[in-house]
Design goal:
The radius of gyration is 21 Å and the shape is globular. The protein is an alpha/beta fold and about 400 residues long. It has two domains: about 140 residues, Aspartate Aminotransferase, domain 1 (Alpha-Beta Complex), CATH 3.90.1150; about 250 residues, 3-Layer(aba) Sandwich (Aspartate Aminotransferase, domain 2), CATH 3.40.640.10. The protein binds pyridoxal-5'-phosphate.
Length: about 400
Amino acid sequence: MYLNKQITGYLERASWIRKMFEKGRELKQKYGQDRVYDFSLGNPDLPPPPGVITALGEVKERAKQPLGLGYMPNAGFPELRERLAAFLSKEQGVKFQAEDVVITCGAAGGINALLRALLEPGEEVVTFAPYFVEYGFYAENHQGKLRVVKTLEPDFALDMEGLARAISKQTRVVLINSPNNPSGQIISEEELGKISDVLTAKSKEIGHPIFLVADEPYRFLTYEGALVPSIFKFYPYSVVVSSFSKSLGLAGERIGYVAVNPQLENKEELVNGLILTNRILGFVNAPVIGQYLLLAALGEEVDKEIYYKRRRLMGEILEEAGLNFTWPGGGFYFFPQAPDREEGKFIDSLLAERVLAVPGTGFGYPGYVRFAFCVPEEVISRAREPILRAVERLS
Ligand SMILES: Cc1ncc(COP(=O)(O)O)c(C=O)c1O
């Protein structure tokens, strides 16, 4: 009655998320928190590293200074932009200046600021499924539309012909996510080279540049020595969006950035647009305390050893259960195929064992199920028998 049609529709369509959430709450109330095995949430649970904790103590002193917690430049503290530029120069292997980066409210805020700056009404953002479910909302927030290209089974290889087919005059952005939520797969150099070839040819054909945007909040967390290649060397119209939600355990503090390819022609125009959209979308600036924390702790990370152990344990359980899956190269999710691809039956069978996971439909990839392993190792251990039983019941 009060809501516009679009939001009413979103609420209706999102009902399976609510169902999982409500089911989880109901089970926890009935059986107790520790008898429910909740792998549904991608909420990173590791505490921030020591630099963040020390800096939190120092925030008090900063707060006493004039404008210590006041408004600041919309792009973020100049000193932080400079530090971040130096950090990214190492990480991405190209030289950044402070002017190439804008501090944002997480990667989510960064993607929204970027799409607001780039999209004309009706234009499209192309992404590969499985994908982070919020992308569709982000595109539509700015009168855009998400167009989805499915990755190929069994190992989520990018479908380059599908990408070429999906691009039209309406395409403004191709949005990639590596390591991927939910599949955990990393886009290889070879794949980046091919994406770049497709986008270069298509940009020429349609008469405007297509931006390649890489969403990289899981870049820091890879397994068995895997590396995440940088997009910047491959393609000039490129932008990285990322955050410290996962790497510094700061998800609630909403701190991230947009980094524009330093070699982009007329890059000031894009950066100025981003600074404006960051402001007028109502973010104004990224949180001041988060920026102080980042100034102190940039380069530190949560204890990744914990994720390494959880991944191994979870993977072994899924193997023992006989599920088909590809080990994640990064991030903290497993995305196995549901037995007989019946994700609904699998979710119900898991629920009967008080195990919560998310159906692949939520990521544009039906027939699969996502397990987030940002839960303590002992919860994963205790979930072994219930998961085995849930699979067994279906066979
Ligand atoms: C792929 C992906 N992109 C973006 C985000 C948003 O993260 P944040 O805004 O906290 O940086 C998430 C959060 O889970 C994610 O998984």
